[in-house]
Amino acid sequence: QSINKFAKMNVRSYLNEFRINAFLNNIEEIKSGKISIKEAFCSSGFNSQSTFNRVFKNKFSMTPQEYLNNFIE
Predict the structure, then answer these.
(1) Could you read off the pLDDT of 43-70 as tens digits, one per residue?
(2) Model pTM score
(3) Which of 4, 22, 29, 71 could form a disulfide with 44 if both were Cys (CB 3.0 to 4.6 A apart)?
(4) Is residue 43 exposed (0-12), middle (13-18) or buried (19+ Cβ within 10 Å)?
């Protein structure tokens, strides 16, 4: 109830937002090749690549790879 009231989103959305932000914190490591996209999304709490891709695309309207390509350029 607290998350619904203060974050204005449900628990699942809140967790996905938290996980996406954790993934984004690893962008530099992904860009430099220190870790893979898979390592980054797994360490961010996503258990499934398809779930990660769906959540990411819903937030940014592009796939994680497209986002990284734009970030690197």
Answers:
(1) 999 999 999 999 999 999 999 999 988 8
(2) 0.82
(3) 22
(4) middle
